[in-house]
What we know:
Layout: H1 2-70
Amino acid sequence: MAGLxxxxxxxxxxxxxxxxxxxxxxxxxxxxxxAALGFAAGAALAVKEKLDEHAAQExxxxxxxxxxxxxx
Length: 72
């Protein structure tokens, strides 16, 4: 009986190790997903800033053109 109890406890330890491994893998996957999401958000923000800057430059050019044409 003692041998069966010992074998049962080994199986429990293996299951605990397996569960721990799964939790660690899930944590790493979540961290990687978070990093990827953060990178994507940063890239999207950079693109938006460039588009906003370009739009502001175009608006300024249009206003300068209208002022030049209006002064003639």
